[in-house]
Design goal:
single chain
Length: about 180
């Protein structure tokens, strides 16, 4: 099943990028952090697939939910089974536009990225800021933003409601390299 999902994600990216100047990473990083009174919850995913179409400024990201790694195995199990239901919703996606993409240079600049974020089968339009720079060979993007679990229908059981924040900080680092056929 994981192979089939990966195949369809790759097929999407190939069709998205066909015939365009594009930049790709298969090893982007996305992490999240939730501060709580009992203990902080954090995880990192270093297998993020992201592509940028340099002719239009469009970008797409795919994240396999089971690729988030936690310090504690029990947290990872609860995350996948009880909260994001990774078997039912195996990936999160983002499809959007980098606003003023043509203004990116080799110097860092903060730009807005507007698009649709889908997590747990629910889609919400978001706008985030990213520190961005571009050369002929690389597009780098870093930043962070917050999401509310309720927006994505992620339920927190009442027994642990005080131990998990409903607002999660998401950080990302995407180092896209020019894609050559």
């Amino acid at each position: 099943m994981k192979i089939l999902s990966t195949f369809f994600v790759c097929l999407f990216f190939v069709s998205f990028a066909n015939g365009q100047e594009r930049f790709l990473t298969k090893k982007g990083m996305i992490s999240f952090f939730s501060e709580t009174p009992i203990e902080n919850i954090e995880a990192q995913n270093n297998q993020v697939l992201s592509i940028v179409d340099a002719t239009s400024g469009k970008m797409a990201i795919a994240i396999l939910m089971k690729s988030f790694m936690f310090k504690k195995a029990l947290m990872q199990e609860h995350f996948n089974e009880n909260y994001v239901e990774s078997d039912k919703y195996p990936k999160a996606t983002f499809k959007g536009d980098i606003i003023d993409f043509d203004s990116i240079t080799a110097s860092e600049i903060t730009l807005a990225i507007k698009g649709d974020l889908t997590i747990h089968g629910k889609t919400k339009e978001i706008t985030i800021n990213a520190v961005t720079k571009k050369t002929d060979e690389v597009i780098e993007m870093t930043g962070n933003f917050f999401i509310n679990l309720i927006d994505f229908d992620v339920k927190i059981p009442s027994v642990v409601k005080n131990n998990i924040s409903e607002k999660i900080k998401v950080s990302f680092r995407l180092y896209h390299k020019a894609y050559k056929k």
